[in-house]
Amino acid sequence: MDLLLHPVRLRVVHALSGGRTLTTGRLCDLLPDVSKATLYRHVGLLADGGVLEVVGEQRVRGAVERSYRLHRGRAVIDAETAAAATPDDHRRAFAAAMATLLGEFNAYLARDHADPAADAVGYRQHAVWLSPEELADLLQDLRAVIAPRLARNPAPGRTRHLLSPILFPAEETNAQEAETEGHD
């Protein structure tokens, strides 16, 4: 969990998602706001931790340039680890996810031809009232829509998009029940 909960490392994981194989040089191109030394250090940590695997090496101007691929089974925090996490662990995970998202969004906006309207950029929040059963149905529906798309690989005409669903109860159940008691 500690290995993955860093904004730069999460961005590297995102960049390599979809079965991509990339060199550290190409990762530097994709993350231009991250210094080369910082990126190399974090790629090294991910490789040492087994999240990335080296799939090729070639000599470039006297140095060895490695190509990396994501080891998918090691690039996730499993349900058991998440369930055992403390509130502080969850705060750190959420902060890392938000910092990662902000870094990715800033990199997108820094592009010469960024066009949020044309690119269908969205960052909305919706408050929905759900029973536990309705929440389970919503999550099942979202998984059914998203999961098949996660399996898609890079291809001509496809652009990598980040989809970041965030879901948590905004109020305690007791507060919700008390608020609705007089409003039937």
What labels would you give this structure?
single chain, 47% helix, 184 residues, 3-stranded antiparallel beta sheet
Describe this structure in words.
This protein has one domain (7-114, 125-176): Arc Repressor Mutant, subunit A, CATH 1.10.10. It has seven helices and three strands; from the N terminus they run H-E-H-H-E-E-H-H-H-H. A hairpin with a 2-residue loop joins strand 2 (52-60) and strand 3. Helix content is 47%, strand content 11%. By secondary structure, the protein is mainly α.
The percentage helix is: 40-55%
> N-to-C SSE series?
HEHHEEHHHH
The shape, in one word, is: globular
Instruction: Compute the number of helices.
Output: 7
Could you name the CATH topology?
Arc Repressor Mutant, subunit A
Low-confidence stretches: none
- The CATH homologous superfamily is named Winged helix-like DNA-binding domain superfamily/Winged helix DNA-binding domain
Q: Report how far apart the termini are.
A: 45 Å
Radius of gyration: 20 Å
CATH class: Mainly Alpha
Estimate nothing, just give the exact number of structural domains.
Answer: 1
Percentage of β-strand residues: 5-15%
CATH architecture: Orthogonal Bundle
